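One chain shown below:
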Amino acid sequence: MKAERTRRKSPHLDPQKLERLKTVLGAPSEAEALAQAVDLLLAEEDIRTTLRKVKGKARIARVFA
């Protein structure tokens, strides 16, 4: 597995939001919570971009009527 390059940052964040983020993601540390949140956001943007590209080009069959 390729080692990830990281950059050290010191953002000013609301401690309550950061603690909630850790809890929601089940992350062991604040750094891991932030990394997971960024990964989720970027994955969501990839999905949105793909959906915009296929908009109107596909048909979805109704499974449950």
Observations:
- The helical segments are 15-25, 30-54.
